[in-house]
Amino acid sequence: MLFRSNHADRGFYGVKVEIDLLNRAGAPVGTTVDQIQFVDGHKVWNFKALVIDPDAVSAAPARVSWQH
Prior knowledge:
There is one protein chain. By secondary structure, this protein is mainly β. The chain has no helices and five strands. The protein starts with a strand and ends with a strand.
C-alpha cells in the first residue's frame, strides 16, 4: 500500500495515481492505476497497486492527476 497526501486547503475530484511497477533491479516492467472520486483537503489517500506481473517486486508512484 502506498500513501499520497492532499496538502491543499480544498478537495480534488477524479484523482488518479499512475504507479510504476519495478523489477528486482529497479527497472520498470509496467504500470498500473488507482483512482478515487474525491480527496478532501489536508487528507491522506491510501492507494493500492494491483501487481500481476511476476517480474514486479515493488511499486513507486509516478504521476498524479486530478480535477479542481
